[in-house]
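Input:
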Amino acid sequence: MGASRGPRLSGLQKQVLSLYRGFLRAARCKSAADRRQIESIVSAEFRRNSNQVDRKNFLYIEYLLRRGKKQLEQLQSPNTESLSQTKQS
Amino acid sequence: MLRSSFLRRGYNKVAGIFGRAEAKKQDFPVLEGHPAAQESAEVALESRVTVQDNVKKVMKEFRIYRWNPDRPDSKPFLQSYHVDLSECGPMVLDALQKIKAETDSSLSYRRSCREGICGSCAMNIGGTNTVACLKPIDGDTSKPTIITPLPHMFVIKDLVVDLTNFYQQYKSIEPWLKTNMVPKDGREYRQSPADRKKLDGLYECILCACCTTSCPSYWWNPEEYLGPAALLHAYRWICDSRDELTEERLQALTEDERKLYRCRAIKNCTATCPKGLDPADAIHKMKTKHMLSQPMEMVEIM
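Output:
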């Protein structure tokens, strides 16, 4: 999915990019250390999904978009400070 | 006491040599010194064995919708489970609990009260939307029972669906008492029994989402149309005699033609409600109220 970031992006790609932008904007409102933490987690997740998930698997991409929107709403609330991740063995 | 137990053990050893019949009495070490209890415990064991031999297994097949978001390439499918109904509670929720406990613990579903009051376990069972804790298992073992999530809803995993839009629509009708005046003696807002009776059939809604997800009009316009559950609650507040902002509530519902008037009287909601409520009737009453509150010329045109 990273290779096709040329002039013509499909609707789904635009949605994914706008979600990513939303996360980065939300990160700007938090403190500097938290901002770096959020940015690293979010960019790692998006990059991992872009490599692992098939371009044509619309069902799963839409599921990830919906989940991401909910997580973004939670992050945008002023009560949330930062994100953290735990590894699943 | 000591002497009798010593004698008993001696007798048992001797009897054990001559025959195995007395060996059973050693099955219950906890009942040492209580011969009557040991005998009745033995009788209970024997009868249990007889019952187990006679009880027949009643195997019922359940085909349950599965989808795992952690496996991106998998597509949804119906998985078959066979449950012995003779060892299972009567309701579909009991069967799901048994499957999750014994066979497949990755099966995901919502549940809470197991008595039909919380509305968590709403799902589509055999084509109809109901709550699983109030739906008895169909005893016909020749046909499988098909369990799928609520229709036309986004699936989070297996039978768990995303109900945030549903809850936001309920929130949007402002389901609380709105008054301008304080009651006369400053205590409760009073209501006559006749007025309270008007709320029967409206307040019992458990927000299970069965009716809303059975409405074809809601399937095609989930963002705009509020759905039978939210409209039932809207009517519950409109016809509450203690609530004073009735006209404002009605006006908020009918300002555009999409929140209330998308209802086409399909009546799937009334047919599927697990609590036996009548959302279609409430919606019809609200439409009538709105029509009658308009000036006479407009009513004649209608």
